Structures are given as structure tokens and as C-alpha cells.
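Hi everyone,

Forwarding the result from last night's run.
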Amino acid sequence: MIERFRKALKARGARGIIGLQRQFKIADDNGSGQLDLPEFTKAVSDFGVDIDPQDVKGLFKSLDIDGSGEINFDEFVRVVVGDMNQFRKSLVERAYRTLDINQDGQIDLDEFKNRYNAAMHPDVRSGKRTEDEVIIEFMETFEKHHAMMAEGKGGRGDGLVTLEEFQEYYNNISCNIENDSYFDLMISNAWNLEGGSNPAS
């Protein structure tokens, strides 16, 4: 169902992020920035997707990643665009290996501190929070995001970031970046990677 929905969107010219955003806004009848089930049902019909009406709810649930009963644009893009391509996956894995100093398959606070400079964070500079507090919060975003994408199965909550959690976080970011070169630059700058790659696009 999702693949048919993707093809229908592409057939209507929604091949890039801007095109997807345009189609999303067209479907958002009440201008809330979210699609509820009635809006989505109408959108499926308008997009010419050949799906049995009773299956539309299943497709809606697949797109409603956080289970809120509405689809926001990030959820919409994530499912329609899909996972990162192999170039981006390799780049993210490279960044992870750089962070995982002892190569035990999980990144702890000390390893993050080795690569992530929190000293320039506004809250640290103003004295509201310590560098450790900022880094811990940043690490928690990886676990929380992974838990949300795992359909409510819950996160491990152990303060350690696995490769799977790291990849899932960047999967979501990747969906909103069309150019591989820009994604390369973003990852390389974020984690101080040397000798950036040369993507084809």
C-alpha cells in the first residue's frame, strides 16, 4: 500500500521535498498542518491510489508514526521517501565508528564528549546547564526517536546510543535533505570527519 501511495505521489510530480510539501498542503483542508483520517482518505482518492477504502485506515496508521491520530509533514515525508540510500548509510556508519572509540557497539557519555562540544551551547554559556547535562539530553534524543519509530515498543533508556538508534535518528533528518553532498557536509561537520566523500549527486 505504501509503495502504491509513493508511486501515485511521484506521478503527480511530488518527486522532491518541495513537491511532497505541496501535495501535503493540498490535502490539509483545514490548514492545521496535520492530516486527520478524513483528510487523508480524501487525499488517497485525489491522488488516484488504488487502495480498497477499508485499507486506507491501515495506510494511515503506517504513516502516523507517533500514533497521535494525525499525520504531520515529517511523518509523511519519512514514510514516503523511505530510508537513506547506501551512500548516506555508509556515511552515518562511519560517523558512528568514529564516536564509538572502544568499538563495543554502543556510545557512552565519555565517548560523546570526545566528539561533541557542548561548551558553545547557549544554556552552557549562560550557566543554566552544564556541558554534561546538554550532552545527556542530546544522547536521549537518539533513544527517544528510536522508541517512537519502533511503534511504541519503548526505548532501552540505558543512556547508551546503539548504531540502530543513531541510524534511525539520521534516517529522519535525511528525509528532508535532497542533496547527498549537503548531507555529507552536515555529517562531516557535526562529527569532525576528515576527508569527506564524493557522492554522485
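Residues 151-155 have pLDDT under 50 and may be disordered.

Cheers,
N.
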